[in-house]
Amino acid sequence: MRKLSFATKILLAVAPTMAVAGPISIGEVEARAAQAQQAPPTAPAFEVASVKPTPPSATSGRYTGGPGTDSPTRFIATNGPLSLLLLKAYDLKSYQIVGPPSINRDRYDIFANIPPGATAAQIHVMLRNLLVERFGLAVHREKRNLSVYELVVAKGGPKMKEAPKTPNGEQDRAAPGSGTAMRPPGAKLILGKDGIPVPPPGTRVMMAFPVNGVMRVTARGQTVEELIRLLEREVDRPVVDRTGLTGAYDFDLSYAMHTAPEAPAGAAASAESFGQSGSLTTASEPAPTLFGALQGQLGLRLESNKVPVEVLVVDKVNRKPIEN
Questions:
Q1: Nearest-CA neighbor of 83 among 239, 317, 309?
Q2: Nearest Cα to 160, choosing from 295, 264, 306, 35?
Q3: Cα-Cα-Cα-Cα dihedral of 101, 107, 112, 114, to 10°?
């Protein structure tokens, strides 16, 4: 007797309830089972989507939509380059996208309806499917050796203070990736003597304020991951965490806003190597570089290196999308 597959047994079990024109042979049942197994699941998609090139007169843009935004049922991207859409769709950073110059130059307006109950992860998939359908996008992933900075603990150890514990014994920290203030009800920011807001007790926040060419950063309840987000915006290359620090920390950072000098390959970018003490600045002394500030104020340093980084390579994309 022929042994039936699991899928065939399932289909035979439900066959009596199916409307059929005549008897079904074992061969026909197995063929239908194989076809059912091969059929791809329905891909998540926006209910309705409009895609158009941004008018030349546009001067500003917007990117929002989904849970936790002001447009929970609508995905909206105006005056957005394709590179930004790729970053959001694939949850990548700018240095992980490799493609033609047009992905940064051409701008598009996208308006789409989000199905009820869709999660942020599902919206990312919807956006990927939209880019394939409307732009003919074809991509692949590969590893490339990129210049990175490795964030390590400097000699003498970290100088950041651990954030206080909450009443239940857990460490007071910001939600991962938030980077926004979480204030107690009715709390207001009070300006310090230098004009920089002072977070009230219990606030978990990272704030950055430029003052006379100096960037002043105030962080409460922040992880090294959140610090790295700030650093990557400043140095414009990947920053890899090699500190081993897993807690949440309170710290202040003050550094000159000009482009930070690059550390020699394989060497530490220390306060001494850039001729600055790295201590918090006053009006009577110049601000240290970002590298010097990290070591002098936080007890951390950046070391230049090259490591394999996964990137998304754009193989094909149509500059003129299918609009509607």
A1: 317
A2: 295
A3: 50
Strands 62-64 and 74-81: antiparallel
- Per residue in 123-141, pLDDT (tens digit) is 999 999 999 999 999 999 9
Q: CA 1 to CA 148: how far, in whole Å?
A: 63
Please report which residue ranges of 48-156 form alpha helices under DSSP H: 82-90, 102-105, 120-135
Separation CA 301–CA 268 (nearest Å)? 7
Helices 82-90 and 120-135 cross at an angle (nearest 10°) of: 140
Please state, as a whole number, how many other Cβ atoms lie within 10 Å of the Cβ of residue 105.
11
Q: 251 Cβ partners below 8 Å, 6+ apart?
A: 159, 160, 161, 217, 219, 222, 297, 298
Nearest to 7 by CA among 40, 44, 32, 41: 32
Q: How far apart are CA 96 and CA 274, in angstroms?
A: 29
Q: What type of residue sits at position 6?
A: F
- H-helix segments, 106-223: 120-135
Tokens of 62: 């917007």
Question: CA–CA distance from 284 to each of 83, 179, 214 (Å)?
Answer: 43, 31, 13
Instruction: Tell me the CA end-to-end span of the chain in Å, nearest whole number.
Output: 55
pTM: 0.60
Contact criterion met (CB below 8 Å) for 268 and 302: yes
Residues listed for the chain? 324
**What pLDDT, in 10s, does the model give residues 68-107?**
888 899 999 999 999 999 999 999 988 899 999 999 999 9
How many whole angstroms separate alpha carbon 159 and alpha carbon 153?
10
Contacts of 302 (CB under 8 A, 6+ apart): 149, 150, 151, 152, 231, 235, 239, 263, 268, 269, 291, 294
Instruction: Give the pairing of strands 214-222 and 249-256.
Output: antiparallel
Could you tell me if 265 and 175 are in contact, meaning their C-beta atoms sit under 8 angstroms apart?
Answer: no
